[in-house]
Amino acid sequence: MEHIIEARRYLDNARSILKDKAILEGNYYQDKKYVRMAGYTAYTGILVALDGFFEHKGKKRKSKEWYIDQLVQRNKKMVQLFEDGYYILHLLMGYDGSKNMKVAKEGLKTAEQLIDWAEKNAIKFRLEEIN
Description:
The protein is mainly α. It is built from 5 helices and 2 strands. The longest helix is centred in the last third of the chain and has 30 residues, at 101-130.
């Protein structure tokens, strides 16, 4: 389960970036650069967890559609959560640099839920594939 440990490390790093560098004042972060960095970092954590779960060992990252196709085969409910993570972490935070603390909080929560799911279900799906 090294991929889960690595994914959680990315998520912890994203939290640290927001806490230590983005500078929260009221409900808004002050430095867009660090919000972007945190969004990309947390989204990478999701991809690391899912790569391990799907046993994708290539160095080249797969497309968003590939992850969705893989999730559809295993748990359709996780597709929406993945799309939320993509939208919030990758687009709103990563590209747009949304400084809204509530957006960041929801994105990190989504990442944590996906990583938790990958951790809890990895063994279950491996056993089902064997049988």
